[in-house]
Design a protein that fits this description.
It is a single chain. By secondary structure, this protein is of the alpha+beta class. It has 3 helices and 5 strands.
Length: 97
């Protein structure tokens, strides 16, 4: 499955998002990462093949991740389901200013 890479100066973490094209919280999460200059990759679940979509859902379910979008996976260990900037701050060690 192909990911879309977004460049950022902060590359301390590997950030992977699963998003939906028109979902506001997905857009907010991507905007948050861009505003904080975080490099990340994302997969728009709406635009992938049916086979890739099944693989994504199977992966999320096997990781016991609630399937709600966006899903942020940070360093393959921290999983955030939904738009939660405070949790992203903690996981990415972003200072609350």
């Amino acid at each position: 499955m192909n990911t879309i890479k977004v460049e950022g100066k902060n590359r301390n973490n590997h950030v992977l998002l699963f998003t939906l094209t028109l979902w506001k919280r997905c857009k907010m999460t991507k905007e948050y990462l861009i505003e904080n200059d975080i490099a990340f990759e994302y997969v728009d679940v709406v635009t992938v093949s049916e086979e890739d979509r099944r693989e994504i859902f199977d992966t999320l379910v096997s990781m016991t991740i609630p399937v709600g979008f966006p899903v942020s996976i940070i360093d393959d260990t921290v999983v955030i389901s939904g738009y939660h900037p405070d949790e992203l701050n903690d996981a990415l060690k972003i200072a609350n200013v």
